[in-house]
Amino acid sequence: MTFHPKIDYRELHRSKRQMPFDDGKPFHYTPENRERIEAIARRYPENQTGRRSAILPALYLVQRQLGYVSLSAIQHVAGVIGCTSADVEDVVSFYTMFYTRPVGKFVVQVCRTLPCALRGAERVTEELMTALGIEPNGTDASGTFTLMEVECLGACDRAPLVMVNDSWHECLEPEGAKKLVDDLRARGEAALTGCHHEAPDRESKN
Amino acid sequence: MEPVLTQFVRHPHSYALDFYLKNEGYDGLRKALAMKPEQVIDLVKAAGLKGRGGAGFPTGMKWQFVVKDTPKAKYIVCNADESEPGTFKDHLLMERNPHLLFEGCLIACHAIGAKVAYIYIRGEFFHVQEIMERQLEEAYAKGYVGKNVLGLGFDCDIHIHRGAGAYEAGEETALLESLEGKRAQPRLKPPFPASAGLYGSPTAVNNVETLCNVPAIVRNGAEWYAALGPEKNGGPKLYCISGHVQKPGVYEASMKISLRELIFDVAGGVRDGRALKAVIPGGSSVPVLLPHQLDIEASFDGVAKAGSLLGSAGIIVLDDTTCMVWLAENLLRFYRHESCGKCTPCREGTQWLLNILEKIERGDGEMKDLALLENVAGLIAGKTLCAFGDAAATPALTTLKNFRAEYEAHIREGRCTVPAPWRRRHAAPVSAH
Prior knowledge:
The structure holds two protein chains of two kinds. By secondary structure, chain A is of the alpha+beta class.
C-alpha cells in the first residue's frame, strides 16, 4: 500500500534493495583469515560484548576474500563471532562500504558532496558515465568497473576526489575522466595519484 | 604564529618514529607520566583546550567527568571518523604525524586512568590507516606503547578500528555503538559516555586534533598555550579551506585571525577573480555567513557571535556562480543519505526537505513550498536524539533566510536562475530513497 499518491513506497522500501545476496556458494574464511580475525578479536574485551566489536573487521576480511558480502558469508561471520546472522546483516545493510552484490574489479567512487560538487564533481560523474557506458551503481558487462556516487570522502581541498577501491585520485578534472579510465585499464591502481602522502607538494596542483 | 601541530608536515619523513623522537617526540608523555593524573587534567583545563571535533567542549572538563571510582575498565576513544563535509584536518595529522596522536592518546589514558585507547578511523582513510598501523607497530616495538611504557611502569594499548562509511559514526555515542559492532546510531543521553560509554564503561571520546594538542600543552605549559589564541580560545587551530578559493588546504593559525584574512590572505581569495557570495564557516552543518560578516575573529566565540558556528573549522567558500537552492539540495541529499534512521523526524524529514528542494530547483516549485520547507525543517531541528537533526535542517533554513529572493526567482521563472558551468549538463537524477 502507499500513503502518498506521488511516492510508491513499495519500490522505496529497504527490503527491496537490501536483501542479502545468495550466490549459492558456501563461504568459509581461508585459514589465514580465520587466524587473522582471532588476532583482531583479542583487541577487544574477552567477552561476548567485546567480541562483537570484531564484526566490522570480520566483514572487511570477507570482502577482501570474496569481493562482496554474500548471504553465506553473513552466516559464517555470525558463527565466527558468536552472534545471530540478523545481527551481522543489520550491520552490513547500514554501512555503505560493504558491497552486498558482486562489484567490478575497480569500484570508482566519485565524491558528490558540496565541496567536491563546487569544483565540478557532477561533471566528473557525467564524463565517467560516458567513458564507462554505465550509470551510477552500475557495473560494466566485463565486470571491470563499477561506478558509484558517494558522500563526502574527506579531502575537500583536493576536489574533485575519486576513490578507486581503497585508493584515492585527487583533483580529477572532468576532462581527465576518460584518460583515468584508460589508465586504469592499462596500469591498474598505479594510475592513481594516491593522496598527498605520495605527493607532498600538492599546492602546485591546485 | 609559528605552526605547532603542522610544524613538520611538509617534511618527507615527518610520520616516522625516529623523526618524531628528534623533535621532542614523546617528551610530553614522559613529563605527563611524572605528574599525577589530576595534575594533567588541571593543566589541560588551565590551558583552556576546547574540543576540536565540532562542539568545542572543554577537554579538561570532559576528562574530569569520567567516573573514577569504578571497578570497570576505562577507555579513551579517539574520534577519527572525520566526515563533516568541508573538514579534512585530522587526515593530515594522522597521515603526517601519527605519533603525535599516539602520544596524545597515551597522555589522555594516563589522565583518566585508562589502559586502552581505540582510534576509530573512517573506512575511506585506509591509506592513512596503513601508515598509522606501521607506525603503531614500531611504537610498540620500541616501548612507547604497550607494557611498561618508557620503562615507567605505565601499561597502555592503542588499537585502530576501521569504520565502514557512516557520517553518523562521528557523533560520539553513535561512534561507540559502531565500535561495539552495531549500527552507528546515537544513544539516549544521559547516561553520558563519561559514566557509561564503551561497553558500559566510563569513556572519554576526543577528536584527533584535540588529542594532538595535548603533548604540546604538557611540554610547554598552560600559559604558553592559552597565549597562542584570544581569550578562552587558546592554542593553535587547524582551518580547512575548500570550495571556490585559489589555494584550498589545511592551514594552521591562531584563532586571533579573522575569517576574511583566512579566505583572502591565507587561501588566496576567490578563484578566477569572481566575487564572493557566501561562506560556510564550520562544515556543512552550520549557517552561512555573508561577505560583510567576515571581519570577525575565526574563534569558537567569534563565529558564534556572528550567528554561525566554528564547528570543525571546515570553511567552504562559495563564489557568485553558486545557486543557493542547488546548494541546499546538494546538502540535503547528503543528510538524507546519512540519516541513521533512528529518530522519525530526521529519517522522514530529510526525505521531505530533499523532495521540496528538488522540486524548486528543477523549476516546479510553488510559493507555498517555501512555508512548507520552513515548517518541515522546524519539525526536525531540536527534535532528535543527536545534533544531526539540527544539522540537516540548517542548509534549508539558512539559505532561505539569507537568499529568499533566489528561491522566489526559481519559482517565478520555473527554472534554476543561477546556472554554473561546473554543474551537471544533463537532467538531475530523480531521487530514490
